Amino acid sequence: MYLVTAATRFEMEPFLDQCPQDGIYRLVTGVGPVEAAVRLMARLQEFSGQCRGVLNFGVGGAYLDPAGRAAAGLLDICLAENEVFGDLGVCLDEGIERISGKELEVADSFVMDAGLLQMAARGLRARRISWVRGNFVTVSCASGTAVRGSFLARRHSAICENMEGAAVARVCREFNLPCLEVRCISNLVEDRDTSRWKLKQACRRAGEAAAAIVASLVEHGHD
Q: What is the pLDDT of residues 22-43, one digit of tens each?
């Protein structure tokens, strides 16, 4: 069985409406990389080898390019190819410098499981849900300006940001479990204006996408 995770109850609830199967493992991790890592570690230790992988889903903010265009628009579904801790390092006036050194071991970048990505694409296609694939950035402090978002997008060739994905991927690496992440764009990463956000709609769309992927996993014997 796979474990399905989301940061908040209002992200998880639309998924449960679409996928109310009793046998599905699920976890609300809490917001941010620390809560996500701690709660996921505890849950996986309880399973003692019963879990086959983790599907992490939720909402995210889409990065804009210098011309103001976004690779993913509002309410688009996005699949992560890679996850990276975007603000782990040294904070400078002009940006963030990654930690490096011979005596330092920093796990800050993670590749999503190729097999699960293929299965996710199959499930989304079956429900006629379109998607965008690309790199995701995980931050402890969400970007509230277009300048910061643009920097992170360029630095990591990324399409969107979130606050838990890389932490989930890091825990999965520790447990040698495949990881998959799907998100729906609730807002653009610009100078902060919550009146333009589509949070409720994005939660619903993210839940629908996650339910489609779980259905594909079950159909093809990956439950």
A: 567 899 999 999 999 999 999 9
Burial class (CB in 10 A: 0-12, 13-18, 19+), 75: middle
Q: Residue 28's domain is classified under what CATH number?
A: 3.40.50.1580
Report the domain count for the chain.
1
Range of the domain at 206: 2-219
Longest dimension (CA), the chain: 51
Encoding tokens for residue 89? 């390092």
Rounded to an integer, the average pLDDT of 181-201 is: 95
Taking the whole predicted model, whether its pTM rises above 0.85 is answered as yes
Q: Which residues pair with 132 in a beta bridge?
A: 78
Q: How far is CA 41 from CA 4, 34, 36, 190, 215, in A?
A: 14, 11, 8, 33, 25
